[in-house]
Amino acid sequence: MSIVTQQTVQMKQVSRGNYLMRNVLKHNVVFNEGTKGDAAYILTEGKIEISGIIEGHKKVFAILKPISIFGEMALFLDEGMRTATAIALEDSKVIVVTKDDLEEFMRQSPKVIASIITVLVSRLKTTTKKAMKVPSTGLGIVRIFDLFSTCGRLELKYSPTVKTMADTFVTTTDKIEQYIFGLADQGLLSIGRDNNDTRIIRIRERDMLNAVMQKKE
């Protein structure tokens, strides 16, 4: 199938900020598996197919309809390699969301903070472990905590956070807890309880990503 790559770009007001809007014609590629990713996309009109190559054969992971977010793992992982291909099945419109855009939107809309990881989970649950394996679980966890701290969210409920991250990174809760306790041992996090005696994770280092990188040097 011949894929046309030309896209029409315009600016559109979304919420209280300006975000890049792309018109994607039917059969156009939004991004290809194995390419470098630096943005996520929100589908507002049309239909997008998410697929990948498994053992030499194409496998369709999901058919997205509005409103859906895709390509979001690029916002959390430094490796940023696309683990799937996104193609428009019909004329579509997508909002381009960079990491800076997401942080701004989260500051403006606190509900997004609670929903963004849930979006990651629902996406990854529709794929196979092999197709959507994460290059660096530890770094991914750090980047998620870093994003929350940047947006001023310094306390997270322990159990749902651990379970959600385990689902997102296709691993066990024990493995996630090992990373979290490791960060706590470094003084970047603390584990405690809130006023309702609910177990929580407190982010102690606001610039967590930079702090972790410095400790590695």
From TrEMBL:
One Pfam family here: cNMP_binding
**Residue ranges occupied by any Cyclic nucleotide-binding domain in the UniProt entry:** 28-123
Q: Which InterPro entries match?
A: cNMP-bd_CS (IPR018488), cNMP-bd_dom (IPR000595), cNMP-bd_dom_sf (IPR018490), Env_Response_Regulators (IPR050397), RmlC-like_jellyroll (IPR014710)
SUPFAM superfamilies from the xrefs?
cAMP-binding domain-like (SSF51206)
Q: What is this protein called?
A: Cyclic nucleotide-binding domain-containing protein
